[in-house]
Amino acid sequence: MHEMAIAEGILDIALTHARDNDAQRIERIHLLLGELSGVETEALTLAFRTLVRGTMAETAALTWTRIPLAGRCHDCGKERALRPQDYLCPDCGGGMEFTHGREMRVDYIEME
User: Fold this and answer.
1) Which of 67, 81, 87, 88 has CA 20 to 30 A from 52's CA?
2) Where are the alpha helices (DSSP H) in 1-112?
3) 74 has binding-site annotation
4) pLDDT score recorded for residue 84
């Protein structure tokens, strides 16, 4: 379950920022998760809840925003929403480059 490793990374980032800012408690950790990130949010939440016990993030809410898949054509430059199987531009047949939808990062941390 790679969600445990992801949860460990998220908690490490949050605790580091909290210590660096003399925070007493972490209230919320908000993530950006792309459609293709492969993160199973239910498993991530379970792993996170297990890891935060006894830390300053014990009562922190773990929230996220899903980022839809989007891309740009290498040939005509048009940008559009994509499906994972869309590799060719429907306008000119050029190759599509994914520009959004692979994100997996901490967006912000609310601390007290």
Assistant:
1) 67
2) 2-20, 41-51
3) no
4) 86
